[in-house]
Amino acid sequence: MLTVSEAALQKFDDTINTMSESPDDGRCLRMVRSEESGLALSLEPVHNDDKTFEYEGRTVLAVPDAFADFCEDMQLDIDETGSLTLA
């Protein structure tokens, strides 16, 4: 199963606060397909089949069930430059 570091969850929370006019509107960062990089994050509502990750009681990341096999045994983290890593 995908694991997400505390640092990444905090960064997602900060990003939602910056991107959303109303951070409590029920949207979170959702993993989506991207033609450029394969995967991207988009500010969207959670879908019923998503695996969700919380930070301080708020859902900050949603991963569609379709990505579950791809992300199995991987970790989403922040590197020393502040960039996300999935390995």
Can you characterise this structure?
- Helix content is 21%, strand content 41%.
- The chain has a single domain, classed as Sandwich (Hypothetical Protein Aq_1857, Chain: A).
- With 87 residues, the chain is an alpha/beta fold.
- The strands form 2 sheets. It has a 4-stranded mixed sheet with strand order 3-2-5-4, with helices on one face.
- The protein is globular and about 30 Å long.
- The protein contains 2 helices and 7 strands.
CATH topology value: Hypothetical Protein Aq_1857, Chain: A
Judging from the principal axes of the Cα atoms, what is the shape?
globular
At the first level of CATH, the class is: Mainly Beta
Helix content class: 10-25%
Low-pLDDT runs of 5+ residues are none
- What is the β-strand count? 7
Largest sheet: 4 strands, mixed
What integer value in Å does the Rg equal?
Answer: 12 Å
Residue fraction in strands: 35-45%
What separation lies between the terminal Cα atoms?
Answer: 12 Å
Arrangement of strands in the largest sheet: 3-2-5-4
Number of domains: 1
What is the mean predicted local confidence, pLDDT?
91
For the record, the CATH architecture stands as Sandwich
Number of helices: 2
Organism: Woeseia oceani
Protein name: Adhesin
